[in-house]
Amino acid sequence: MTAPYRFTHAILRTPAPSAVKGIRADGGPDPDLAGLAAEHDAYAATLRALGLDLTILPPLDAFPDALFVEDVALTFPEGAILLRPGAATRAGEVEHVREALAAHHERVLELPAGHVDGGDVLRLADRVIIGLSARTDRAGAEQLAGLLAVLGHRAEIADTPPGVLHFKTGCGLIDAETIFAVPALAGCPEFAGLEIVVTPAGEEEAANLLRINDTILVGDRWTATHALLEARGLAIRPLPTIEIARIDAGLSCMSLRW
Ligand code: CIR
User: Per residue, what are the HEC states of 89-120?
Assistant: First the structure.
């Protein structure tokens, strides 16, 4: 299996005006649309600068959260999987990525039952972890494990801590053997054998970092996290995330990568 952060392609979706009405758990204020679009543009430009071939899908005003393409599918060099997102308002997004996935992947599988959000799926070097959450149920996780086996990937099912939206809201890959995680996920049994680096106090939101080839994308507000990663000799690319954070999203959510 290739390193789980080596990518040549990504699919993104331009935010629609309705994105400001995206789901949020705490009922906070709407993000600013221009700011949200600027964050999305900076993200796309960064992926391009890192060498990825991007497909940018058109906005979908009927689906406020559709810019978070990560949640509706999984993409691997071996094929893609269409998911069944756990939020009812997001179910219809799936049909809108089918064509783009088919254009790039010979094999496109479909989750037949249950619910899984891609934000709950963490790919490691030797396996894939599926986190159970308010969006991903056991029926969906078990069905997904079967589809992953078809693509040659072993899956394990883990728990997402209460109050954490997605498994990857609380953790991200630093490298193939190292996970950056919020304290509540540091003891995750499925991480046994890996090095766990815990988020600095007050920077739990930095956990949703995104390694793309040899660079780590990380929110620009998390300066202690920047220092920690740089001290490990890692190249980082700080990116603005304040507006997407208002609708409970982070850096991994805005792309499907393979
Ligand atoms: C939602 O609640 O579905 C969106 N507002 C945020 C989705 C974030 N996606 C992710 O963490 N993978």
Answer: HHHHHCHHHHHHHHHHCCCEEECCCCCECHHH
pTM of structure? 0.98
Query: Contact at 8 Å (CB) between 5 and 211?
Result: yes
53/170 Cα distance (integer angstroms)? 28
Which residues have CB under 8 Å from 231's CB, separation 6+? none
216 lines ligand 1 (CB under 6 A): no
CATH for 9-257 is 3.75.10.10
DSSP-derived letter for residue 4 is T
120 Cβ below 6 A of ligand 1 = no
pLDDT over 60 (residue 195): yes
The ranges assigned to domains in the chain are 9-257
